[in-house]
# Entry
Amino acid sequence: MEPSDTQVSAEVEGAQRATGLHLVTPKVRRHSTRPRSVTLGIRAAVLLVLFGAYWLVAIKVNDVNKLPTPREIFDHYGTLITGQDLIGNFAISMSRAAKGFAIGTSVGLVLGTIAGLTAVGEEVVDAPMQILRTVPLAAMLSLFIIWFGLGDLPKLLLIALFCVFPVYINTTSALRNVDRKMVESARSFGLRGPRLLGDVIVPMALPGILTGLRLAGSLSVLALVIAEQINSNSGIGAMLINANSVFEYTTVFCIVVLYGTFGLLVDLFFRFIEHVALPWRRGVSVR
Amino acid sequence: MSAAPGTEVERDRHVAVICEGIDKRFGGHVALDGVDLVMREGEFVALVGKSGSGKTTLLRILAGLEAPDAGTLLVPEARTVVFQEPRLIPAKRVWKNVSLGRGRGAAARAEAEAALGTVGLSHRSSAWPATLSGGEAQRVALARALVRQPKLLLLDEPFAALDALTRLQMQRLISDLVEDFAPATLIVTHDVEEALLLADRIILLRDGKLAVEVAISEPRPRSLGGAHFDGLRRELLGELGVTV
Ligand SMILES: Nc1ncnc2c1ncn2[C@@H]1O[C@H](COP(=O)(O)OP(=O)(O)O)[C@@H](O)[C@H]1O
Ligand SMILES: [Mg+2]
# Structure
């Protein structure tokens, strides 16, 4: 049956003594199987270090109009909440960003799917999209006002336009890069149309599609700054612009911090979505 | 069955692989349970076992692709693997797949072309991998493994997906190449005939344990007639749970 332990150990000795072959114990590349808590810990530590560094520099600069300390920023939030209805404005902005995101990503997904799945779809959709992509939206605010007035509509459309492109581009390329062998075998099992799309193509394209959604998520808040210049009377984008033009830099910092926090939340949200939507990529060893 | 690893000549060869008490668990599932294995230079070992018995896991551990949970492992630095699928890089032409990581110069190309010659694929050297047949792709994978002049060649069911004819050609090819290059070779296969045809020694994994070990001293190339091979075949198939 099996060689006994002593016999093998003697051979180990013999091999190490006499063999012309240099033997090693291989170093195995470990997959990242670190617990989530460690990953989160590292991320938090990086933020803390950056925060500390900022604090030190701010103390050194010692000028609230150039670089307010975290303390001063924090205190200023109170003033903004009571004096300028920061919370109400934040809510308005978030609702605009969410609506614009929803419209823009829907359009991006539909157009991206059309262009990604069919040759004729790409021929029809792609060139106009590439042209639209480079239109300097920020410089066309007055046109939007003439077309759509001063209400929410032009703002939502602007935000949506910002969201369309990243989703479109990523969806198209993700769909086009789906392994054709998988599609072919699914076809041969009789999957067609929506079933083929839903069961095979979309799950495999999902990582790329999520990248597009992620980009759109942050763009939708960035676009607020441009969109809320229209009749700039509400929203944190408008607050930011107004504060900027009257040199209220502490307010600017307050809102920028708000933006940063929101960016972090958007990222966490999409991480969660990826975690839920892509279970087959989680800790699966490649073999 | 005895553990006698072949002839006296083999005893004098350098030891190329030492495994002692290798354990591997996946969650609660025990994939390998105290596997001991010694291989010598130039020795051709076939690893057989039912599907899920831990063959690939052992091969991946020997390759250094997976870490054992316990046990001692000593292998040569020059190891190469031919996986069950060819795993060619679709974005690189055939010869570049072979010379992967060995430079871009004329020397690397010549070396790759030579290796492709030994597997009979010189004429496909600048083809894209996606245009190869299954057998051709697997031969490229073999060339890629051989060009590195491994001291340990690991083959994971390399012919499993091939038709019977190509398979016979590949078996002959491997047998010749291994004779010429003389690395220690471990071939995982579920095919007892293939094991009998190629190996100096056959080891059988059952539930993660090495259960049977058979030495075969007949010279290669072999034909599998005769009472001796019939007996061995019946015995191995019996151990695998097939009655013949
Ligand atoms: N990453 C993994 N997670 C859980 N189980 C695994 C994993 N890899 C392999 N296994 C299990 O370990 C056992 C041995 O697998 P393997 O070595 O691939 O078998 P085979 O002998 O068919 O090559 C199988 O039961 C397989 O399901
Ligand atoms: Mg296997």
